[in-house]
Design brief:
alpha/beta, 19 strands
Length: 383
């Protein structure tokens, strides 16, 4: 069982997930929706509400987990708002042990928050770890967050020593659906104005996987000897999965046309909001293979760092772990619809592997952690 926590609850999620499943030859989704206790905060009371905006997040999370682990039961816990009742939803899932795997795709773009934000959540994560529950968080989509908050910082709650932080990669796939390579997800964007790229390529930073070094938390024992010796505090991400929207995931979701008709449309999604549920699905497979839940998986993950269980994104490829990125820059050329009927288009160039100050390197790095799970070798090799 994999639990997913988001705000609100999409009324069309079962139909959407089953349409997705039918399109890709998967079994119907085994989904239970739970609305956790809490108090709904109205917009006039100062809380911005966007239930429809969260439906896409829920659909992405459910379909990503289902794609990786089609036989897993999914429990979706919807918080009644998108603020502190997300904590109540997490507490509800842990206190009732609704799953051994919990994936989350939300957070703050900094760890420098009031203690009232940090301590209650950290206590929940500690309880989860003690009770054999693995909690997974997306590492963020703002790179080192310097462009967002004005200083270099990892995201919270991803930086907690008691959660597994999942970063993002850009995934190269061949015409035969074969694995080609991965690089760190960090996108710079420029647009073609008909005569030239404006601004000059690669353009400014747009988005990328989060990571970095904590100012609050000491280095947990499981990271000792794996992260560089110059780092003495908690550092993230721990692992990574595909997160680049340019190499992203087709989400099937009900949408309303201008004339009021409702259709299920397909949209490409990405972000570490994709990376975390993908990895949670991989952990469900590893739990099934092992015959027991791994619970808090970081000690097991770091014990296998450098082994065939992971693709070291920053390392030189070998015959056992192929995957050679192209020489020079890696980029995607996009033609996006500029209006409803796509009669006008905008051409942009998205250059990746430029994730602010975060970068891939051999071994653990602050862009992809110990690397990405190497398929069956990960599933069978995680202790």
């Amino acid at each position: 069982t994999v639990a997913i926590i988001d705000a609100y609850a999409s009324p069309t999620i079962v139909a959407d997930a089953n349409a997705f499943s039918s399109a890709y030859g998967l079994p119907p989704v085994n989904l239970q929706q739970v609305v956790a206790p809490g108090t709904y905060r109205h917009p006039e009371r100062g809380q911005k509400q966007d239930p429809q905006g969260w439906y896409g997040e829920e659909t992405l999370d459910v379909e990503a987990v289902h794609a990786m682990a089609p036989g897993a039961k999914i429990v979706f816990i919807g918080a009644p708002n998108n603020f502190q009742d997300l904590d109540a939803a997490m507490n509800h899932a842990v206190d009732r042990h609704l799953a051994n795997i919990i994936t989350n795709s939300y957070g703050f773009p900094t760890e420098l928050l009031p203690p009232g934000f940090i301590i209650p959540q950290e206590q929940i994560f500690m309880q989860a770890a003690a009770e054999g529950i693995g909690v997974y968080f997306s590492s963020g989509d703002g790179g080192d967050e310097s462009a967002t908050v004005g200083y270099v910082t990892p995201d919270w709650p991803a930086i907690s020593p008691f959660v597994t932080a999942v970063g993002g990669t850009s995934l190269g796939v061949g015409q035969a659906n074969n694995y080609l390579f991965e690089v760190a997800w960090g996108t710079h964007k420029t647009t073609w104005d008909g005569k030239k790229w404006s601004p000059a390529a690669p353009g400014p930073f747009l988005y990328g996987g989060g990571g970095g070094i904590s100012r609050l938390f000491a280095q947990p024992s499981y990271q000792a000897g794996v992260v560089p010796s110059s780092i003495t505090t908690r550092a993230i991400p721990d692992v990574a999965m595909n997160g680049d929207p340019q190499t992203g995931f087709p989400v099937w979701e009900s949408t309303t046309n201008p004339d009021g008709t409702v259709v299920i449309s397909t949209t490409r999604y990405g972000g570490t909001s994709l990376s975390s549920p993908l990895f949670a699905g991989m952990m469900a497979l590893a739990d099934q293979q092992a015959g027991h839940p791994h619970g808090f998986a970081n000690p097991a993950i770091y014990s296998r760092a450098g082994s065939g269980a992971f693709r070291d994104v920053g390392a030189t490829p070998t015959s056992a772990l192929p995957g050679v990125p192209p020489s020079g820059k890696v980029a995607v050329l996009r033609n996006d619809c500029a209006n409803a009927d796509c009669s006008a288009k905008i051409t942009s160039l998205r250059t990746t592997n430029m994730d602010t100050s975060l970068a891939i390197a051999p071994g653990w790095d602050d862009a992809t952690g110990v690397g990405t799970p190497n398929g069956g070798a990960f599933v069978t090799g995680l202790p």
